[in-house]
Prior knowledge:
mainly alpha
Amino acid sequence: MSGLLNFILWTPVIGMLVILCIPNSSKTAIRYTALVTTAITFVLTLMLWAGFDTSVADMQYVVNVPWIPDFHINYSLGVDGISLPMTILTGLLFFLCILSSWTVEKSLKGYFALLLMLEATVFGVFFSLDFFLFYVFWEVMLLPMFFLIGIWGGENREYAAVKFFLYTFFGSIIMLIGIIALYYSAGNDADAFNILAHHGGLYTDKTVSIFGMDWEFNKVFFWAMFLGFAIKVPVFPFHTWLPHAHVQAPTAVSVILAGVLLKMGTYGFLRIAFPIFPAAAVTYSEIIAILGLISVLYGAFCAMAQNDVKKLVAYSSVSHMGFVMLGMAAMTTQGMNGAVLQMFNHGTSTAMMFLMIGVIYERSHHRWIVRPDGTKGYGGIAKHMPTYTVIFIIGMFASLGLPGLSGFISEALIFLGIYERFTTITVIAVMGLLIGAAYLLWMYKRMFFGEPSEEVRSYSDMNAREIAYMLPLCAAVIVFGVYPTPILNIMRASVGKLVTLLAGFQ
């Protein structure tokens, strides 16, 4: 079992290389190679879960091999209760995305090869315990995303791809400055690039001279890390790349973007920014909470104004990730657990929404609730596509936070955690739930009620393949809505350790 992380990380790379060796004409072989690769990877993540000791807060399945010894750079991997839920979610969503991409015809080999490359880099980010390795995976991840949006996206795909790349790359450069500063703050010793060795702010109790002025090291470089991760989340006002990327990206890429890649930002806070700069994190927790609150309300109001259903769900992701920021800003056991659980639950519910939008887009080739000329885009879907309607409403209510579905328990834990520290922010943030219910129900009313038009009557209901890749997500939002304990057990010890660390600086 000690090599399980290596198998999970490198299986997609092997699958990618196999696909590149298959002739372009063998489309079936390419599709099944990608499907089998992601299926194997997902099974390996379940094996990781089965062998995981939930009572241990420290890293498990650790791999540590010298990579560039002269500079203390190691190939160091590990997984704990914070990264394991994201690992399982990544394995599941990539497998389902391959199924949802079965009808892709354009440059098929390149499409599936880039998806598998993207999967490997995402796993690399969640597993890395070495700053250098973490940054390599964080940056390489941009390449497959750039090409997947820029080649297989919609009409304005080039603009969306470039904007996504520039925003994220800018944040990465600022984060790199922080990593370099941490390296030298550790005195170039054997643990200079070891992420865990920096936890507790061990090397940040000093000043740094910038432009001839002395600044507190931990506060300056906390914000450097914050900016790099905040753009990825994205936190207001760094969110403007997200709606463009979502709307132009193909369905599977939108699912990965919202379901997994946004979580890399919040994961960065939990793995790097908070534990390495705990004093600064506590000092600025109210600012983080306010930014989270603005994201919740701004994202919700923007979603309400959309007639493009995909852009509506994209802005809803800004709002829901704002709740994650609120949970992290609470720095309490309930709030932190709620934040990590919301990361997982949002990944499943928003994946359902984007996949369902992809299903209707394959039939209609548009995403308009109401077209720009004022005519109705969708309407009466419920009467004509009953299976689609039932599955859509499950995903919608999970996103809305209906009790009994997964979104409810994570948002409830966030509010329980943040109320005592930031009561006013909590009261205002509850309005985000109300607005969320408003825009989702209004969207549902306009799309599904009324008499179906001739165009809608021409649509076929969901086929067996589409139902097959939606059922696991339906099961996840229902099961973890009724019984979230399995996920909470995974994260309990690791989250508790982080909360204890931060409590020492409050």
